[in-house]
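hey so i finally got around to running the thing on that chain from the lab meeting. sorry it took forever, my laptop kept dying and i had to restart like 3 times. anyway pasting the input first so we r on the same page abt which one it is
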Amino acid sequence: MADEAFEERSEQATPKRREEARKKGQIAKSRELASVSVLLAGLFTIYWTSAFFYHNINATLRYYLRHIGSIAINDANVIGLSFLAVKQFAIIMAPILLAVFIIAILSNVLQFGFIFSGEAIKPKFSKINPLEGFKRIFSLQSLVELIKSLLKVAVVGYVAYSTVVGEFGTLPLMLQKGPFQIIAYLGGVSFEIFWKSCAVILLLSILDYMYQRWEFEKSIKMTRQEIKEEHKQTEGDPHVKARIRSIQREMARRRMMAEVPKADVVITNPTRLAVALKYVPGEMEAPKVTAKGSGLVAKRIKEIARENDVPVVENKPLAQSLFKHCKIGDLIPESLYKVVAEVLAYVYRLKGKVK
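ok and heres what got predicted. didnt touch it at all, straight out
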């Protein structure tokens, strides 16, 4: 038992173990990949729809500034004005919110598909246990998260610094530009810093996702003993299954032996095989095999047949053919009609003489 407790988890997880982990919400995912995807979606949506933002914000400001002297602020129209302001804000923000919403869903679905599990929000003592919290703080996962955070800060800082340094030659020229040109220039520089930072962080996020998959696969690995136990649970204990099959065979054998007294004839070869046949004219298209066996089973079939006055006929080729080609309950093949008919005719004549 002690050896099993320290057995190495060297085997890949089975589909059952993966499904159980998935139901518990244990999946391979990178929060960084989802975050940077959402950030990029919002950033590029703003860039591509900048004209839309400008015209809508300009039109809204023009409307309020033009009618600022004629709009009365009172209880009667404050709700209407608030609704109009919210409506305009929703129209302006709709492209960004829609793009962020779609990318947020896709970035998660593409990582682990659709999944809903309440296991992660269940109260657990380990979450408030100081010792467990101390272990989490100084775990490998925490170290990786710290390294990722430092890398992100370093990347964003370097990209911002290098971009601004590269614009030092252009900055003095802005003194001769108008307000709109300066704003457009600052917006372009800011966009350049953002997308460069996001591009590098996206690369880091992909590496993080690969690490998360490796960590997940490692966490769900199984020992050989666990695989054996799972196999027993899903497929059943081999000893129990063997016992069940043995009981089923015994029950089938008893049912078969119960049909022997009803047979018309038992054909043998003469010692090793025995096949019982029954034929009811008008009800059956051909004679039917009601029992068969070899060795001790054949011996028992012959004993029951003699105890119940069922004729036992020795015909080695016929017995071999019936035993080989017919299952219990099958009608005999057409190729054996003539031979079996001769045997049955002999049995009927024999019974007639006995009578």
